[in-house]
Design brief:
Elements lengths: L3 H11 L4 H11 L7 H7 E4 L8 E4 L1 H7 L8 H15 L5 H5 L4 H14 L4 H11 L5 H20 L1 H11 L7 H15 L9
Antiparallel strand pairs: 1-2
Helix pairs in contact: 1-2, 2-5, 2-7, 5-7, 9-11
């Protein structure tokens, strides 16, 4: 019996440079199928590697999916995850309305990661993008920031000539006018969803 670690290495070797196969391999490895002899002995074949010489593991996805519910017993969640994995790996049609319903948070996270990977999004790309997209504020913090924007707007409009001259002097190396500051305040306000918060631009 081939160990789960060796099977995982073989799946990754077979999937090298192929986003969909890589995503499916990682998705399968994260489940328990490689520890089940009734799955690995029947549906995974080990072949000699090409080039690198590393053995590759190939899964007979149509046969595995055909065995679900009969000779390959499993829970409903396991069945759904295997169907999704087979679809990513081999293009086997899957009813997403049925398969996504009832997945727990861990499996949902695994599926989302696999879809991103299959679409060509590298882990580094996801980390950088998520760092930008996941910046959020609690409602009290957003309200406090909106109040500060309102204060800046009122301060700027109280004496625009004198404050404009001061801003010009301060930003002499990098021209930045009072009008541009107004525009930026309006943009930040819009990002906060505070367009009706009393800030007059």
């Amino acid at each position: 019996m081939t160990s789960p670690d060796m099977l995982a290495a073989g799946l990754r070797a077979h999937a090298q440079s192929l986003c969909c196969l890589q995503a499916a391999a990682d998705l399968l490895i994260a489940q328990d199928w490689l520890r089940r002899n009734d799955f690995t002995s029947r549906f995974i074949t080990i072949h000699p590697g090409i080039g690198s010489g590393h053995p590759v593991a190939v899964i007979d996805w149509p046969a595995a999916i055909a065995a679900l519910g009969s000779s390959l017993p499993c829970s409903g969640g396991e069945q759904r995850m295997l169907k999704i994995t087979a679809s990513v790996a081999d293009g086997i049609p899957v009813d997403l309305r049925d398969t996504l319903t009832g997945l727990d948070q861990r499996n949902l996270d695994l599926v989302v990661t696999a879809v991103r990977h299959a679409a060509g999004s590298s882990p580094q790309d996801r980390t950088e993008r998520d760092a930008m997209l996941s910046v959020c504020l609690r409602t009290p913090d957003a309200e406090e920031l909106a109040d500060f924007l309102r204060f800046l707007s009122q301060w700027l409009t109280a004496d625009p000539d004198r404050l404009g001259d001061s801003l010009d002097q301060f930003m002499s190396d990098h021209p930045y006018s009072a009008e541009e500051l107004h525009s930026d305040l309006a943009r930040f306000s819009a990002l906060l969803g505070t367009a009706d918060s009393g800030i007059d631009f």
